[in-house]
Amino acid sequence: MNRTIITAVGKDTPGIIACISSFLDTKKINILDISQTIVDGIFNMMMIVDAEGMDGNFDDLISQMKGIADKLGIDIRCQREDIFDMMHRI
Amino acid sequence: MINISEAFETQNMIQHENLDVRTVTMGISLLDCSDGNIDRTCEKIHSKITRYAGNLAKTAEEISAEFGIPIVNKRISVTPAALIGASCCKTTEDYLKIAKTLDSTAKELGINFMGGFSALVSKGMTESDRLLIESIPIVLSSTENLCSSINVGTTKSGINMDAVRMMGQVVKDTAEKTKDTGSYGCAKLVTLCNAPDDNPFMAGAFHGVTEPDAVINVGVSGPGVVKAVLEKIHGQSFQVLCDTIKKTAFKITRVGQLVAQETASRLNVPFGIIDLSLAPTPAIGDSVADIIHEMGLEQCGAPGTTAALALLNDQVKKGGVMASSYVGGLSGAFIPVSEDQGMINAVKCGALGIEKLEAMTCVCSVGLDMIAVPGDTPASTISGIIADEAAIGMVNQKTTAVRIIPVIGKKAGEEYEYGGLMGTAHVMKVNPFSCDEFINRTGRIPAPIHSFKN
Q: Cβ contact (<8 Å) for A81 and B2?
């Protein structure tokens, strides 16, 4: 399993999760967990996904996700889960 | 499982508080490159470094993208060149050949600094060491990415004052030869006492003879992250202050540990150490001086600064040690004046001078770092400053160093802009009284006694 965390931050508009999810579907990336909050109209979302067996490499994922982020006018980042685990878990 | 607030805490550190991995440094032994012929030696050096570090920059960039953490510098440290050149370097020109080989290899591999144009002369100097030291001004003015370091003292063997005297003149000559760029050559030259074998930070990095054939050492950063958490705990007790720094240092260091493990594994090279140093940059907020300000001092340099820095240094180590399997290098808080916007401001407003910085170096790594002084400062005065720092290191069993820049043509109070990580040098006033007679004595200062501590 190649657990990756996708975070999205930006002005809340309809269809953000739909857009990201359908893109992940085309990449054969499985969503394991999802949580979101909206604070003062700012959309915050975190997805944990399994990128094992995805189409393309990690660089492609980052650059294609950047294209989606630009289209939605929000910030989306993809990072391997290890960095969060290392920082927040002993 | 990671929750949303933890995910955004990490991202906030990276995006807004300048959290990064300051350097991934590959140490490479060149002991097997030594040859009686200088040209063959240079070929072997190029071949060995390329073989080990050919993919260093690319691998670091891949890791940076996957984990979303900036890796600012990719560097290489090599065996002190004076050891490699001993069998083939008969003139300073020969050392220049080795230097140019190292420099061009660094450029070829996309490495921003190569460390190891070094000599270890704490007790005495071989002819090879002497030639290397004499070649430093021409080497640093003819190369771009090569750093030089000379270890002039250790706690066990004392201080080689002949080397200290030479280094004062070498610093001056290097400044003169690079005067068109604000004497920039001196920013790539450091004089050390108790130099560690596994330091990933420049300009003092070299690959010690006790190290394996190749190794990955990582230097973390994060003054901006520490400053940001301290902004939230004004007025609270020292216990809260210490615990907050420790917890933050732990988080910062864990990122370094992850990057080090990944890099070592992908390049099939052993992981060496994490250097726990808090390394500032000229970016606003990424400053050790600002951390001291957040602790409650009006300016870095005010009474209480040494105590605040001692506390910071100790808590960073306590938090960092638990976060990493192996800790080494310099490990402490850096106070490079020109590279830290808070330090520059403190110097400008008169809060911080060389004497206070010297006191601060007693409790933190590394020493008088990136200090600009007037271009007409005598060589003997620079030697005196080096001797003072070496004495602090020798007596306190710690690493100390001097990276001082006599900016030719500049007087106290003037500035020179180096740009990038080197920042802006504000030329500092130097004590005008002479130490000529003391520096001109020959021989060594003996090792100190390790009992009757006072």
A: yes
Say whether B18 sits in a helix, a strand or coil: coil
Contact flag B255-A77 (C-beta cutoff 8 Å): no
* CA–CA distance, B11 with A7 (Å, rounded to integer): 9
Distance separating alpha carbons of residues B15 and B10, to the nearest angstrom:
9
- The domain defined by B26-193 folds into Anaerobic Ribonucleotide-triphosphate Reductase Large Chain (3.20.70)
For the question of whether the overall pTM of this predicted structure is more than 0.95, the answer is no
**Residues of B with Cβ-Cβ distance to A80 under 8 angstroms:** 66-67
Q: How many beta-carbon pairs below 8 A join chains A and B?
A: 64
DSSP H helix total and E strand total for chain A:
3, 4
Q: Is B451 left (phi over 0), alpha (psi -120 to 50) or beta?
A: beta
Interchain contact, A88 vs B6, CB within 8 Å = yes
Strands (DSSP E) found in A12-41: 30-39
Q: Minimal Cα distance from B259: which residue of A?
A: A83
Which amino acid appears at position B420 of this protein? G
User: Radius of gyration of chain B from Cα atoms?
Assistant: 21
CB distance B292 to B227 below 8 Å? no
Domain count for chain A: 1
Tell me the pLDDT of chain B (454 aa) as tens digits. Answer: 888 999 999 988 998 888 899 999 999 999 999 999 999 999 999 999 999 999 999 999 999 999 999 999 999 999 999 999 999 999 999 999 999 999 999 999 999 999 999 999 999 999 999 999 999 999 999 999 999 999 999 999 999 999 999 999 999 999 999 999 999 999 999 999 999 999 999 999 999 999 999 999 999 888 999 999 999 999 999 999 999 999 999 999 999 999 999 999 999 999 999 998 888 888 888 899 999 999 999 999 999 999 999 999 999 999 999 999 899 988 888 888 998 999 999 999 999 999 999 999 999 877 899 999 999 999 999 999 999 999 999 999 999 999 999 999 999 999 999 888 788 899 999 999 999 999 999 999 999 998 877 6
- Can you give the C-alpha Rg of chain A in angstroms? 13
Range of the domain at A37: 3-88
Q: Which CATH number does the domain housing residue A25 bear? A: 3.30.70.260
Q: Residue B377 is encoded by which pair of tokens? A: 């400062």
What is the complex's ipTM, to 2 decimals?
Answer: 0.90
Chain A residues near any Cβ of chain B (below 8 Å):
5, 7, 9, 33, 35-37, 44-46, 48, 58-59, 62, 77-88
